[in-house]
UniProtKB/TrEMBL annotation:
Example GO BP: regulation of cell shape
Superkingdom of origin: Bacteria
Protein name: Murein L,D-transpeptidase YcbB/YkuD
Record keywords: Cell shape, Cell wall biogenesis/degradation, Peptidoglycan synthesis, Transferase
Length: 511
């Protein structure tokens, strides 16, 4: 049984006849709205315009206070919902009525769509969030369970609720003193002996990465090596077993900082629609991971390469409408000026070796040997550059197109070695996919006649071929720094490669 502290609210403060409310409630709502005392003034005024009230008796107010306390499990702050005014004995009873309505509507809005408008932090955001007329929704709950009606507005996604469970666990860890810090010093390696290794061992035991084994606590043995590698993989660090600066920094993040990170990712979930599409693609930029989804099932997982920190892959949603086998690469102008021009100047032979073509502004091919490349500058670059299909083509054998203003898409790559790395932020913004032909087979499942053999035959031909999808596939490029394991419910904290968590956290604090 869950313990719920008793909060005494005198009956005479909340039970009034309809005559005692009415106009006085509307007047109080207007006064509080004008003074800035309400968080959702427009919705509150609509409620009392549609139904003057009263809307709160003792059981409903008690249920509301329950829901406000429970908001902490969503990573929200109960004091943001007029908790003090609702429980204080000296609160004017009519004001208490209005505060309760405002608290309900504000909490409902935060559970439904988040505390922060994602567009203010991610200008490229295009996913349409969940919407509802909350004033009408509130009035529909007249005889319903207030707490349950609020809980029903939170995301239904299982991963959201796994994060809520993790938040509770890490808040307990933080309250109980968390884990000890590993002292600074030189990198720790297998086979070494040091008093700092004992601290490392204690830290990994505290987070469940290491079972406390008998032996010399100051010695870096094989069991500790495997525990360090496990920690590094979960953090998206190279699993080399060496506790250098990056690994040490991750180890020494406090439980309180992990709590904050979970709250930020809960907020990101609240920005999303409930329906991401029955067959859809999700890319977690921070985890270098692409998932194909069919209903509630994750059907395939692919490693991906994403944009460098100074050429970040944007967060947005789109609809894949076609793919191209053996694509030409029409090089973005900025990339041609800043990246390719220095290569042309250093080695003119690159045109033949890499299959580049130069076109004038009218689209006519020109002989690259006729251009004095040393006289061309990035500010004066009157050419288009494209690369023919082939083994060295930057897009590889296939590109997946979901037209968007960012000119970002999924594609193959000839740089296969990049997928062996743990940290994979090497692109200019697009997403490079491991096993792209497998992904093409999945994408084309709804297009008759497009089996794997046909795809492979066309790729082998080297001929550029555009394939229109019989049914568009939603694509969501997202950014999660806390990742849920669907099978175990465990979570991983991954590197915030673009330093976006801090912006979300500050916005959630109203900064």
């Amino acid at each position: 049984m869950t313990f719920r502290p008793f909060i005494f609210v005198p009956v005479f403060l909340v039970l009034f006849s309809l005559r005692a409310f009415g106009a006085s409630t509307i007047e109080q709502a207007n006064l509080l709205a004008q003074s800035g005392g309400l968080y959702a003034p427009a919705s509150v005024l609509r409620v009392y315009d549609m139904a003057a009230g009263p809307h709160w008796d003792v059981p409903r107010l008690d249920a509301l206070l329950d829901a406000i306390r429970n908001s902490a499990t969503h990573g929200l702050t109960p004091d943001d919902y007029h908790r003090r005014q609702l429980i204080a004995a000296d609160t004017d009873p009519v004001a208490r009525e209005v505060y309760a309505t405002d608290a309900y509507l504000t909490l409902a809005g935060h559970l439904l769509g988040g505390m922060v408008n994602p567009v203010t932090l991610e200008p490229t955001w295009t996913a349409k969030g969940r919407e509802r007329d909350l004033a009408t929704y509130f009035l529909e709950q007249k005889d319903s369970d207030i707490a349950r009606s609020l809980e029903a507005l939170a995301p239904a996604q299982p991963r959201y609720h796994r994060l809520r469970e993790a938040l509770i666990r890490y808040e307990i860890i933080a309250r109980e003193g968390a884990w000890s810090q590993v002292p600074p010093g030189p990198a720790m390696k297998p086979g070494e002996r040091s008093s700092r290794i004992a601290s490392l061992r204690e830290r990994l035991i505290a987070s469940g990465d290491l079972v406390d084994l008998d032996g010399d606590p100051d010695f870096y043995n094989d069991a500790l090596l495997q525990a360090v590698k496990t920690f590094q993989r979960r953090a998206n660090l190279e699993p080399d077993g060496i506790v250098g600066p990056s690994t040490l920094r991750k180890l020494n993040l406090s439980a309180a900082e992990r709590v904050q990170q979970i709250k930020v990712n809960l907020e990101r979930w609240r920005w999303l629609p409930d329906d991401l599409g029955h067959r859809h693609i999700r890319v977690n930029i921070a985890d270098y991971r692409l998932e194909t989804h069919e209903g509630a099932e994750v059907t395939e997982i692919y490693d991906v390469v994403v944009g460098r920190p100074y050429r970040q892959t944007p967060v947005f949603s789109g609809s894949m409408s076609y793919l191209v086998l053996n694509p030409w690469w029409e090089t973005p102008r900025k990339l041609a000026r800043l990246d390719l021009l220095p290569k042309f100047q250093a080695d003119p032979g690159i045109f033949t070796d890499m299959g580049y073509q130069i076109l004038d502004t009218d689209g006519r091919p020109i002989d690259p040997g006729s251009v004095d490349w040393q006289s061309v500058s990035s500010s004066r670059f009157p050419y288009r550059v494209r690369q023919s299909p082939g083994a060295k083509n930057a897009l590889g054998r296939v590109k997946f197109m979901f037209p968007n203003e960012h000119q970002v898409y999924l594609h193959d790559t000839p740089s296969r070695d990049l997928f062996s790395k743990t940290r994979r932020d090497f692109s200019s913004g697009c997403i490079r996919v491991n096993d792209p032909l497998d992904l093409a087979v999945w994408v084309l499942q709804g297009s008759p006649g497009w089996g794997r053999k046909k795809i492979e035959d066309i790729v082998e031909s080297g001929k550029e071929t555009t394939v229109r999808l019989a049914q568009k596939v939603p694509v969501h490029l997202l950014y999660w720094t806390v990742v849920v394991n669907d099978e175990t419910g465990d979570i991983r904290f991954v590197e915030d490669i673009y330093d976006r968590d801090s912006r979300v956290w500050r916005a959630m604090q109203g900064e």
